[in-house]
Amino acid sequence: MKFFVLTIFPQMIEDYCRYGIVRKAIKVGALEVFPINLRDFAPKGQVDDTPYGGFPGMVIKPEPIFEAHHYVTQNWGKPYVLLPQPWGKKISQKDLDRWANMENLMVICGRYEGVDERVTALVDEEISLGDFVLAGGELVAMVILEGVARLLPGVLNDPESLRRDSFRRWLGAPVYTRPPEYMGMKVPSVLISGHHQLIELWALWHSIERTLRYRPDLVPSDLSPLEKDMLESIRKGMSFEEWLRTKNKSHENPVG
User: Fold this and answer.
1) Do 107 and 186 reside in the same domain of the chain?
2) Per-residue model confidence (pLDDT) at position 256
3) Helix, strand, coil: what percent of the chain each, to 5?
4) Per DSSP, what are the bridge partners of residue 128?
5) Which domain holds residue 198?
6) pLDDT in tens, 192-222
7) Catalytic residue among 124, 165, 210, 229
8) Residue 32: how many CB atoms within 10 A of its CB?
9) Is 18 a catalytic residue?
10) Is 74 part of any domain?
11) Most buried pick, 139, 163, 195, 254, via CB within 10 A?
12) Which terms in the GO cellular component ontology are assigned (predicted)?
């Protein structure tokens, strides 16, 4: 993937690419990142101007953005263009999955009061991180960059972790690491039992429980019999251990 960021602060993007999963994606050849300095496409580097109508603040002019877009298109082909806007569609995991399959992705970073409205002629999607306002689009670009980079083939050491991501189906289950006990708080015994089927059931139960508690709007409609049984039991206030005992007493073997 080629990832283009049109910005007046290319150093922010360059620095970010030196760390973590984005650095790994670049290193293994799954990702190329091109921070494009809008000042290089503006006479005397003047990228902003006052808005017509006497409104406050400064607005990024259309010329440098159109010129930078043309430069990218001429050299690498037409990109799919995202524009961060306060009213844009909130980014979801499904969006990241979709964008990760694109060859050329571009994020246009506005600043101050935003970009000249005519820039939207270049834009495929207006997107947002949430109902709040930032000073510019660079942080949004970096969020998308990291969210997409970890999905590219060969980037994660254990691709299985993608399947367990929150928002694939349920929210993620609780996770623990060493030591087995810390300040009186113990790792659940099932996780150190070595019983892999039981561990999978425990993880599914707690994923369903967490989803129901924090994001009931995400509960799927196409539940398997096991998921439906767990969901109904959780709604009744049962614990995983209680649910497991009822299965054993009724001779239903959930790990068989």
Assistant:
1) no
2) 53
3) 45, 15, 40
4) 90
5) 181-249
6) 999 999 999 999 999 999 999 999 999 999 9
7) 165
8) 14
9) no
10) yes
11) 254
12) cytosol
